Amino acid sequence: MFRFISTLILCLFVNVGFAQSTLLPISNTNPNHSLYRLSDKSVHTAMQPIVMQGARVDSLTIRELPVSEWHSKNWIFRKIFTEHLVEVKTDEFEVNFDFLPDMWVGKQGGRTIWNNTRELEVGGRVGSKFSFSASISENQGVYPEYYDAYVRRTKVIPGQGHAKLYGDDGFDYSNSTANLSYTPSKYINVQLGYGKNFIGNGYRSLLLSDYAFNYPYLKVTGTLGRVQYTAMWAQFQDLYDIPFDDETPYDRKYGVFHYLDWNVNDRLSLGLFENVMWAPRGAELSYAVPLLFLLPTQYNNGSPDKLLLGLNGSYKLSKNYVAYGQIAINEFTLKEVFAGDGYWANKHGAQIGLRAFDLFKVSNLNATVEYNAARPYTYSASQRIKNYGHFNEPLAHPFGANFREYLAVFSYRYNRWQAKVQTNVSTYGLDINDLNYGKNIYLDYTTRIDDYGVEIGHGLKTKLFYANTNLAYLLNPKNNLRLELGYTYRKESNDQINDKQQFVAFGLKASFRNKYQDF
User: Residue 42 — pLDDT band, cuts 50, 70, 90?
Assistant: First the structure.
């Protein structure tokens, strides 16, 4: 590891010609399936947003879409169908502006639901080493009943920020992002941002997902051929039990992340992950050293901070099939694991999945099938503020802990038409009667109910079935502007409730960012 770091430092001062770098967004609405099929051992797909360079970016991000005469008939048509709203491009400078709406209306029974998002986004580059992006949005909406209940319970729009009351039954919120990326050589990338990150190759991540709200971070990534190493420092906030319109400063906490990714060969990729969360003290100099395995050493020496370790991997079974998986380890006692008595402190999670491309030899028919699980009390801490969460939401899986989930996502594209079908089947144990059964990671694990007999479903065992299908017409591939019609069915059942909800919605949407509703 020391040799790897020293070599990267030397690379900072080596003047090597290289093409401009671009950040590929974290996106399930328009994912770059081609990335997972590349045989290039220098391409690392687990740490996202992915930094790509040169002509390869164009081949992955610009899709082969038909462009008829009327698509470029005049300025208005070009802006709608083929270009950014404003784009300026020279050899040394490039900037793009876009207006990104997310405006839809729907029906849930006799109730009208809607969303009105107006977002401005700017992105570009200066020379071949600097790139930048920023966005700001204002949003109002009235949402489906289960979504509305989530917001009223957490005071947060899922992944989008602190909610304020709007009208009789709506919410108002704002959102902003920013990223400055510096690539001094093909070996090093430095990012200063306010946004989200993702580690993994699946739809979900048990290590770090893009579910929770934006946060400030500094990320340094070094790449030497088959090996990529990332160190990231971030600041998070604790909103637990804060009223809707409360403007007082939130409690802060900090996290450091290390991720080592190794493309063993053309097929196999392996990754090691570690994270420490600490509070309430400020910046910790001992965590500034970006060395893997240093954090567990400090933790074992009596650190009061919270440690999370993980493994990530993927294997290309063939050109059209990629298997992947993760293991997240909060803590465990080996003796208790083998005893099989459901010891509460055996806190870990696992993921296994499969991506399929051009399924049944049908071009652009893709599928993701995935299993996720986390034992009760995983990601929680002895003090709420040290848990693996941010803005009253989990930093990993949306369910928090104490869950088992099976999901399948099928997508198909024909020219500018896109269709998607998604199904989630989950089992989890709800915390009821003000008792801590291990699902809510914001409850201190010192308040747990039992020490033994703790298994997934502990508490009020609940089943969730979620299904969504949508049909979209892609207007502009530059900003993912599309017309979309969707239908959602959700059923949550246990010994106390049998809640069935369904709704249909139609709207004009844009942006590549994920907005999750499957919880």
Answer: confident
- Of 121-135, 204-218, 226-240, the range with the highest mean pLDDT is 204-218
Instruction: Please give the structure tokens belonging to residue 351.
Output: 């993921």
| Structure confidence at residue 58 (pLDDT) | 45
- For residue 409, list its beta bridge partners: 368, 422
What are the domain boundaries of the chain?
2-509
Half-sphere exposure of residue 480: CA atoms within 13 angstroms, side-chain side: 18
CATH topology of domain 2-509: Porin (2.40.160)
Q: What is d(CA 402, CA 431) in angstroms, rounded to the nearest whole number? A: 10
Q: Give all strands (DSSP E) within 42-158, no chain letters.
A: 47-48, 50-53, 86-89, 93-108, 111-126, 130-142, 156-157
Residues 306, 400, 342: CA angle, nearest 5 degrees? 80
Residues 6+ apart with CB under 8 A from 472: 417, 418, 419, 420, 482, 483, 484, 485, 509
Contact 165, 171 (CB under 8 A): yes
CA distance 265 to 40: 9
* Residues 431, 403: Cα–Cα separation, whole Å: 12
pTM recorded for the entire structure: 0.90
DSSP-derived secondary structure for 377-410:
TTT--SSGGGSSEETTEESS-TT-SSEEEEEEEE
- Work out the average pLDDT over 204-220: 97
